[in-house]
Specification:
Helix content of chain A: 25-40%
Number of helices of chain A: 3
Helix content of chain B: 40-55%
Oligomer: heterodimer
Distance between the termini of chain B: 27 Å
Strand content of chain A: 25-35%
Order of helices and strands of chain A: EHEEEHH
Structural class of chain A: alpha+beta
Distance between the termini of chain A: 7 Å
Largest sheet of chain B: 4 strands, mixed
Number of strands of chain A: 4
Strand order of the largest sheet of chain B: 2-1-3-4
Radius of gyration of chain B: 18 Å
Mean pLDDT of chain B: 95
Mean pLDDT of chain A: 92
Strand order of the largest sheet of chain A: 2-1-3-4
Low-confidence stretches of chain A: none
Shape of chain A: globular
């Protein structure tokens, strides 16, 4: 393990029922990174939002990138951030 | 797959949908209770020359379903010309594919009007465009009045938690304040649809 733990934020549209996708991504990241993450914050929002940021950098936006993120894309962003 | 009698009977009634809700039951009941039916809407549906079947695609987690389905439910109680059956979107994706919003989005609720022989007469999806536009305009005003909320296009996760909470409350208030307008617009669109299919 290298680098300091990073924080992941997942903002999802609660009005759209995106909880399963938010929870699935959370679970995948918890298992893959464990204590290398300082926190995973889930933010219920609206307006078709699904945004994932890693240490403040947006790595996926449904509006910008379309659809839900591929977990490996988020993992790669986290690895880059922690220097793994 | 065409909608026929066998498929129709797999749908649940409005009351069964309400009873089977796993969430938002209170919000749904509250919305149902505050629907004010326009007499013109009731008159239009009561005077339909034939009984209509209304196939609805819905899910209990969807905000637009919670907001708009109670209007149809109340209307169907007043107008016995409407026979409503509800299908859970995620268990009926073949139906969803037939009535996609703009040909690509799985927006709900979808209301599909059929005659007694399952000939489609018309459909309605999600919410009126006028409601979307009003919400967007009000949202814009909120951001203009509160510089602390930042840009409307910026990810909200970058806002401090207390500011994000204030923004969330402001956006919820807009939605609440627009309920009478939104309900009237839904009824106007359904009335226009009913008038068109009654010809």
């Amino acid at each position: 393990m290298t680098g300091r733990p990073v924080k992941v934020k997942i903002t999802y549209c609660a009005e759209c029922g995106y909880e399963p996708q938010a929870l699935a991504l959370t679970k995948a990241l918890m298992y893959e990174f464990g204590a290398r993450l300082s926190a995973i914050e889930l933010i219920p929002w609206e307006s078709g939002t699904f945004v994932v940021s890693v240490d403040g950098d947006m790595v996926h936006s449904m509006k910008r990138d379309g659809g839900f993120p591929e977990p490996h894309v988020i993992s790669a962003a986290i690895r880059k951030s922690i220097g793994a | 797959m065409a909608v026929d009698r066998a498929r129709w009977e797999k749908g649940v009634t409005y009351d069964a949908f309400k009873a089977g809700m796993t969430r938002n039951q209170e919000r749904f009941a509250e919305n149902e209770g505050r629907v004010v039916l326009d007499p013109e809407t009731v008159r239009t549906f009561k005077s339909l020359p034939q009984r209509l079947r209304v196939l609805v695609l819905a899910e209990d987690w969807c905000g637009d379903v919670i907001a708009n389905l109670p209007i149809l439910g109340r209307l169907a109680k007043e107008a016995p010309t409407l026979d409503v059956r509800i299908f859970y979107r995620d268990q009926n994706l073949d139906l969803m594919e037939r009535w996609l919003n703009q040909g690509k989005y799985q927006s709900i609720p979808v209301l599909v009007f059929f005659d007694q022989d399952f000939r489609e007469l018309g459909h309605w999806i999600e919410r009126p465009a006028s409601v979307t536009q009003r919400r967007a305009a009000e949202r814009k005003k909120i951001f203009a009045a509160h510089p602390e909320f930042g840009s409307p296009d910026a990810p909200v996760d970058q806002l401090p938690e207390d500011v994000r909470g204030q923004l969330q409350a402001a956006l919820q208030k807009v939605r609440e304040d627009l309920v009478p307008f939104a309900n009237a617009e839904v009824q106007r669109e359904l009335r226009e649809l009913a008038t068109a299919v009654a010809v």
